[in-house]
From TrEMBL:
Name assigned to this protein: Hyccin
Keyword tRNA-binding recorded: no
Composition bias type Low complexity, residue spans: 11-23
Organism of origin: Microthlaspi erraticum
Biased amino acid composition, Polar residues: 407-426
Amino acid sequence: MDFSVKPAGGSPSPSSSTSSSTPHRLKSAGTPTATAAAVSGISSDRDPMHSWWESVSKQRSRILSLSSLLSGDSHSEDVEGSPISSLADSDRPALSLLSSRAAYSLISSSLRNPASGSGSDPLCQWLYETYLSSDPPLRLVVLSFLPLLVGMYLSRIHSSDSSSLPSLSGFEAVLLAIYAAEVKARAGKPILVHIPDLAQPSLYHTPLNGVDKSRDSNPTASVGVLSPQLEPQIAVKSTKRASIVGVGLQCYFKEISQMPAWSKLEFCKLSASWAGQDCDCKEKIDGDEDKVLALTNGFADSPSFNGNSEIEDDFDRLAIRENEEQLSSNGIGGGGGVRIPLPWELFQPTLRILGHCLLSPLNTVDVKDEASNAVRSLYARASHDLNPQAILATRSLVNLDTSARTSAKNASAGTVNGSSNVNTPSKSKKPEILLSSK
């Protein structure tokens, strides 16, 4: 399969070609028919209904093509009865596909196929062409599968038997399409963040030691680089792999509020597996109390729960078994996760996504729990690697998670204790007297 470079806007629409030739036709055409056609071409460009219908038609075409290529899979149904093809009849086909759990299961099972990711993979070709269509809802669909695609790609490229695996040029083509679109969107500029400078006065405070005039003359003193300037890439080289994947995760983070819960859940599970072989040190971050609480909740009905040292062995065996089941369910393999190299270009966007999954009030409990497990696993990985920057970032997220859970627990306990018993008679309140002047 040839993943040729295409323009981001796709093929020009008839309305755009008509409008581009409109000035010439208005000057040269002398018949009323030609003039009316030119005027109708201008009005179609400015008509929002026309652009909406063009977007819907494009989305329906892409969904039907996806349904047809998945119909050859043994796990898929025929095209007419496919849950994907029925989504094309919606008023918002791409968003219906984005929120369809059945469609996500079909596509994710195809991505987990051991033969997926090659240059001849039709699903990778579909993802590549769909992202190049530059339709925002269709791009959201592609980005929702980015965690699974990145997880499969990194686990295979860094596995011990990577030489025997098929080519992963299909996965790389999708990553390069997302990277190229971001390079074009940034226009050669880095992403900067303005750091508050406490040495300078603000609306809310005055520095105790006076104003630092030396910093006032240097406007870049409080500006940090969140993401450096991007360079165009035509291939995924080993030295640029982390940067390309990291840019893709940054694009995912920008649209994370519109991502479905199962996509976030997939990312949290894969992030935990990137830390490598699971260890019990992540359970000792907050001291022994959390571990005892976990033992009490998980082994209350266990015959070995007798208060002796056998609990420690049961806990370790359970942690290893759960990690193996998690990795095998993600298609990565059992017996421990593949230890993925995590330079800061890849670590930073990963933590930003996990921070949203951990602290956003709109996320489900499952997403928050998986994010908490992933952050603790990455903290253990950073501690083993003696990476101070990663330790500081992951430990901060662990502290925020602990604080949020403690606050929620105290709030629920206060609600239960503050509620009065329905059988206890309450003293009737006196009616309020409202005074009004005549």
